[in-house]
Amino acid sequence: MPRPVTVTYKVWSSPAEVALASARLLAARVEQAVATRGIARIAISGGSTPQATFKLLADPSQPFLTTVPWDKLQLFWVDERCVAPDHPESNYGVCRDLLLSKVPIPEANVFRMEGELDPEQAASRYESLLRNTMKLEGAESPVFDLVALGMGPDGHTASLFPNTAGLDELNRLVIANHVPQKDTWRISLTWPVINQATEVAFEIEGPSKTDILAEVLTGPRDPERLPSQLIRPSNGKLLFLLDEAAAAKLPKASEVFTTPDGSNKVGTLEI
User: Fold this and answer.
1) Residue 177 CB partners (closer than 8 Å, separation 6+)
2) In which family does this protein belong, per the annotation (predicted)?
3) Residues 64, 102: contact at Cβ < 8 Å?
4) Which pTM was predicted?
5) 3-state secondary structure of 240
6) Most buried pick, 45, 211, 240, 246, via CB within 10 A?
7) 6-236+243-270 in CATH: which number?
């Protein structure tokens, strides 16, 4: 049986509010980690959802440019498409254009996946990078302060797609995963690595995710079809940042939490 996990889902009225909550979460985790041990290690995802968060983190009208200790942040990627860094579909390239080029993070602190290489070579090189940067030995897994995830309308997360070989990998840190349904290869952290993070947070928005999110959290366990169900952090806690559309079919969140923008809802599930 999988380990029990408490899911906390926080619900805002709009995607813009979710993006701001995501930016605040990232900033807070960086600040906490730096205060504790002088460095923060964050792994971010690609796709369209985090782009609004990147823009907020780089926005001069927001506090993040000056409050986040950018020089103490080490930034990693959860996954990458097998394209060059200047390709419009590159997860790194999008983040570089929207965030990295606008904030004072040292270039040496940015650890991209090399999507332009042979997929297996890129995965092997990124695994070596993780081991060397985090001084890992043997079967040790990296422990990120935050892993930020999204979820596709097919239930995939990272580049762990339904019914792909990468779902069965337990020993590697990084894999090249062939995705037949997209006729492509992807590079991805493995789900055991994601589950070792100090905090794992999904950011999910929109009506296209309503049904699949409810199925992932409240439906039968079927991780081959719904890979997001593999994300069960070892600390027993999992966070979802949602808009009302994405959360529409979850049990109604009743507890009120207060943000600078007003009162919102929070609910919990045991999975």
Assistant:
1) 159, 160, 161, 164, 165, 166, 185, 186, 187, 188
2) Belongs to the glucosamine/galactosamine-6-phosphate isomerase family. 6-phosphogluconolactonase subfamily.
3) no
4) 0.96
5) strand
6) 246
7) 3.40.50.1360
